[in-house]
Amino acid sequence: MGDLSQFLELFSVQPGYRYIQVTTELDDTTKALYDLLINNNSELRIAFYSEDEAPNIQEQYPKANIQYVKNFNHPYRALPRDNDMVIYKDIFSKHNKQELLLKTAYTTLANTADIIIMEKKGILDIATMMELFETYEYRAANHMDIVKGYDIFMAKKMHMWGNGL
Fold first, then answer.
1. CATH number of the domain that 43 lies in?
2. Residues 161, 148: Cα–Cα separation, whole Å
3. 22: which strand partners?
4. Are 15 and 40 in contact (CB under 8 A)?
5. Would you say residue 163 lies in a domain?
6. What is the pLDDT along the chain (165 residues), one digit of tens a residue?
7. Is there a domain that residue 107 lies in?
């Protein structure tokens, strides 16, 4: 995946922050994010989607909070306003209920927190994603090309905007 320094600059980590990566594949971004958070006394939560037997992620990420989700019909579990960032990686285009993913993220994000959607290049239409963010009350949406082979979409849940409370 190469240099992830620009990717890591997206994360303004403070002690006690909680980020959740919802994914079907653990890779260098997971490892880099885990290291960043652990080194700053923060927590990485991983919601791992797999219809097959899931690997033992806890061995690789001993301080992460891991949940396994059986298939793309089911949501991951997250408490309201309990996460400072939600990262959907290689899951958004595959999930049967994309609107549920956006609503779940909105609910679990603290106010002024961010959502990141990472998909392999060319899978998601940029204009469509910007419209989806607007529809589901996310603001300051951006498309970035900072991780080789991936499109990254980022937006913010804003306090007192739309569904902000």
1. 3.40.50.150
2. 33
3. 47, 88
4. yes
5. no
6. 678 999 999 999 999 999 999 999 999 999 999 999 999 999 999 999 988 777 789 999 999 999 999 888 888 999 999 999 999 999 999 998 999 999 999 999 998 899 999 999 999 999 999 999 999 999 999 999 999 999 999 999 986 555 544
7. yes
